[in-house]
Amino acid sequence: MTAHEVPAEVWGKIFDVCCQDGGQTGRSLALASRYFHAVSKSSQYISITLTGKRAIAKFAELLATNHECRRVKYLFMSTFEPEPNMLEYIRKGLYQAHLPPPLVTHDAKLDPTEHHQITADMYRILEFIAPTVRILHVVIGFYREEIFFPMEFPVLEELTIQGPFHDHYDCNDDFCDTLYPSIPSLRRLYLTEVFTCVNDRTYLALRHYAPYLTHLRIQCADGYIESSRTFLRQLLPSSTSSSEVDKDRGQEHGCGYQEDEERAHSRKEFPETLQSILLHPGPTQPRWRCGTMYMMRYMALRELEKCAKEDTRIVLFKESPWVWPYSRAHDYAEGQRQWLDRIAGGEGCWEVQ
């Protein structure tokens, strides 16, 4: 039996499985033959990697004109484009963590108008693929105004956003409700460079954006750990559990709720839904910078370690050196490795060593 004699539907199922590797197989199939190019067209972009502003802009143009290419399930998208040689050194482990990296071009040095254009292209892509995307990993090399993305993702299960964001705004629930459409399907969320303060919007945005989140990983940007402690306090359950509240409400109503009402009230929401909290406290601070701040950091770390021992859901990672692990090139390489592992069925960033 020749390839042409196999039903196109069968080839479609095969290509759907084969094209979950970041886009390499999809590109190869497109070049294999005219028949394979035609049959695999709807599967070529099931998983895809976009690196740099040119790739993002080109893919946005493609999706605008070709509806068949919008069946993206797994997307890795980075505004930062590392030097190929440096990326190869990182992947081979030739650079050591404690050594400073060589000078490289950073996205933060781009003109603000370029930031707006890249953001616009990213949003176009996300709007096109929103109905189908399930695992989304985004690396942003400059400060973004929003914590999350202002569009609906009906089937999104896992989201990772690497990069800094402006979060120091006083806000309330109404503000977050209007800014971020809720994503009930989201179960796993990983955010890097998080810096929380007393009156910011990070926790409120999380509670609205991912009401049924089960796995949360946070890498804090605060070198003095206070943001880690503040955020963890917000995540830990209050003294009055939801079950106690439901019980009190039931007593007030005499016979209790109807069956559908009981089911609605019994469903847990964030942060009670959390099954795993992975917390990276941020980069190490050398003693010589400030003795008082170093002591405060030491005491805060001990408090976080105590919380991790008392709550089995919490995993507290060890501190890392300041310079190299927090470079954009290292973040890119590590993020792409974790994303590829996840779409292949591995643990990715959720692996606890």
Automatic annotation (TrEMBL):
Residues 239-263 are annotated as: Disordered. This is Uncharacterized protein. It comes from Macrolepiota fuliginosa MF-IS2. The lineage of its organism: Eukaryota, Fungi, Dikarya, Basidiomycota, Agaricomycotina.
